[in-house]
Amino acid sequence: MLSETLFGTDEMMTSLMQKRKTSGVVWKVVFLFSTSLAILFLLLLLVSVIDSTFGYVAVRNEVEPHQLVEGKAEVSEFSRIELESVLQEHLSSGILRRVIHEKPLEERSDKDLVSLAEQYVIKPSVVRSWGLGDSLLDQNSIGAFMAANEGLHLSFRSWINWSFFVSDQSANPLNAGVRTAFLGSLWIIMITFFFAFPIGVGAAIYLEEYAQDNKLNRLLQLNIFNLSAVPSIIYGLLGLAVFVRSMEHITSGSFLSSVADTTANGRTILSGGLTLALLVLPIIIINTQEALKAVPDSLRMSSYGVGATKWQTIASHVLPASIDRILTGTILALSRALGETAPLVVIGASTFISVDPSSIFSKFTTLPIQIYQWSARPQGAYRNVAGAAIITLLLLLMAMNSFAIIMRDKISKKKRMES
Description:
Elements: H1 2-7, H2 10-53, E1 54-61, H3 65-68, H4 80-90, H5 93-102, H6 110-122, E2 124-129, H7 132-137, H8 139-148, E3 153-158, H9 162-166, H10 179-210, H11 215-227, H12 232-246, H13 248-251, H14 269-293, H15 297-305, H16 310-338, H17 342-347, H18 367-375, H19 380-418
Antiparallel strand pairs: 1-2, 1-3
Helix pairs in contact: 2-19, 4-6, 10-14, 10-16, 10-18, 12-14, 14-16, 15-16, 16-19, 18-19
């Protein structure tokens, strides 16, 4: 009787257990559905990007190759002597001087000469492009379009290729590349890391290891959590006010006389990197704090037991035990910074620039800004170029995350061997 009063009858216990099992199954289905939906959206994104990166392209040449060299239907069929002759005859004096100044024609490879002839003499332009799906499944309509439009050349094109990586921006999508944007992204990420990482880790060490539990520090901690959720465009406005305008003399490089006073302004790589450093700083602080919390107190106590000071304990025990998690969190924070567009647009990043950045005081653009700029253009071919740039950005993000995983595993393995 007492057991029935405390726990209920067997029927009640059975019914309760059944409800708990049913609830568990329902939530399992909900979680599985959520995961499947996320994977589906990710696959749709990848399929869309890949579809726009490969496919047929209909091109019209301003000058046909057979008009330059009789009997030759493609520029690739030209001999080296014919290529040099065509370039010298048809390039304007200004372009020819620039090309020769970069590298004399005699020292260039045949492939390089073909590329120059196509870009400056043949001048192909995209009339229409098709995605990979249409190229494989709707070839009849493609054939009908080509039959209705004489003088076009149809070819299957991979928009992501080596030329795309080493070329700068161009008004012609066939010649456009991401070199300048790629270098700009690397500059920005390096500055972001060098400013945000030491400050973020130092702040986290103070808050976790030194700070007392009082109202001021609790308020500071609350604000750090709030700052990690602030929309990125707000950081852009902050960067515009502080780094671009208030600190223009520094961020433009004019205090070093590295640029002319008439062209100096704060819309430089340094301003962009500092703005993104502010953006990821709260994230690095929070991730580092969590990594420090994961270190068991017994490790600290053992260090204190042999007479070590607090800083000696942190430097020789706490940081080595948590560095793998700190690096992982930092790389993930930098990955977010790499994909940011709004803050950099606000501070004045260039949307069209063909000059590679050479210092922290250079004008710049980045991969996300370049993707945004190409996607907004009315020409359909630029959507294909944007798809290739998206794949480039994804590869860069994967490389950064892979580096974080490799470093984490390497450090973890080293710690296991030492223990």
